[in-house]
Amino acid sequence: MQYSISKKNNLLEGRIVLPASKSISNRVQIINALSYNFEPIKNLSDCDDSKAMQSILNSNTNSFDVGHAGTTMRFLTAYLSKIVGEWTLTGSHRMKERPIGVLVDALNSIGAQITYLEKEGYPPLKIFGSNLTGEVVELKGNTSSQYITALLLIAPSLEKGLRIKLSGKIVSRSYIEMTLNIMEEFGIKSEFKGQEIFVPNQAYQRIPYIVEGDWSGASYWFAFMALADEGKLYLDGLRRHSFQGDSGLVPVFEKLGVKAQFSKRGMFIEKMAANCTKLKFDFNQMPDLAQTFAVCACLKNIPFHFTGLETLKIKETDRIYALITELGKLGYILTEPAEGELAWNGERKTEEENIVIETYHDHRMAMAFAPIALARPNVVIDSTDVVKKSYPNFWEQLKELGFEVKE
């Protein structure tokens, strides 16, 4: 499905009820399964990833298809490795292209029995679940935080606990800290000092849990506000002291012209003057927002140099390539100065006619490019249903704010 998006004016006013955090929802679902806690999680995300996790955890079969759900694939690989039984875990064509060898090697080193059914190092997997002893695993610090989180979530249930030794630069530390903070809410004690994380053997407490709003989802409304002529939006569901690393977007968007103010249940965002001539930022702690900022900065004609993007090539798509290609259609010449970097120095070329933005099966591509509607009306976005992965009612909320969203 394709959507053409436009708005009669560039005024934004209204209230947005943000989706629940997918990252928190999936972590808590694994914790509840490990603690045999059958109390429903309040405000659980209704996105495809979380639905896939919920369906599989409540399934009576031993063969599971996660579709495009990356966190579900990683978290379940670790979880099933310690649940006695024989399991098959697969996913979409793109999922079979996303590496998982680092996690499998780490799990096998502590007693797991996981083999590959097709290509070495990639799903689908055959998992022979058993009682894992744990103890020590060693990983590179620049590995995906989802691998580390998958190990941490099962760590308390391992006979000897788990010590994770990280070498080199640690990327996405905020996601690791979010995992440990959520685990602490369920009574788990841990240590994260220097390059090592230690989680001793202990039991998760069974507690009621309410999932907070999604800061990644909030980022798209910040981008809309940055590109609007004027306006004020209320973003319902954000927590001031959030575990989510993406909450660090507030001071960065202030440079791009968005003022934010917290209330009890959320946040007001308002248009203000931008105070930035070039945006330099290290996205190490919030890589999922790189697309949002790249599109927004280009449309505001603000050159940028982003670093800390080492994990972007193994996401739902190669996001570096996707940004260079799709922003190129709009006339922006982006470059990749080095591995994990993306830049635009202000260089332009003639934009294409009848532009169709490809989403590459990536929900964040669709939502990051949606604010184009305020600068280039009627640009078409392809495969718009990909937003179901994290923000199912995104297009409906756009309509509620007065946007025309046409097939």
From TrEMBL:
A cellular component term, taken from the record's GO annotations: cytoplasm
UniProt-listed GO biological process terms: amino acid biosynthetic process; aromatic amino acid family biosynthetic process; chorismate biosynthetic process
EC number(s) from the headed UniProt entry: 2.5.1.19
Protein's UniProt keywords contain Ion transport: no
Superkingdom, natural source: Bacteria
Pfam family membership, one: EPSP_synthase
Domain Enolpyruvate transferase: 61-398
Active site, per annotation: D288 (proton acceptor)
GO MF annotations in UniProt: 3-phosphoshikimate 1-carboxyvinyltransferase activity
Keyword list, A-Z: Amino-acid biosynthesis, Aromatic amino acid biosynthesis, Cytoplasm, Transferase
Pathway: Metabolic intermediate biosynthesis; chorismate biosynthesis; chorismate from D-erythrose 4-phosphate and phosphoenolpyruvate: step 6/7
Catalytic activity annotation: 3-phosphoshikimate + phosphoenolpyruvate = 5-O-(1-carboxyvinyl)-3-phosphoshikimate + phosphate
Binding site for phosphoenolpyruvate: K22, G70, R98, Q146, R319, R364, K389
UniProt subunit comment: Monomer.
Name of this protein: 3-phosphoshikimate 1-carboxyvinyltransferase
Origin species: Labilibaculum euxinus
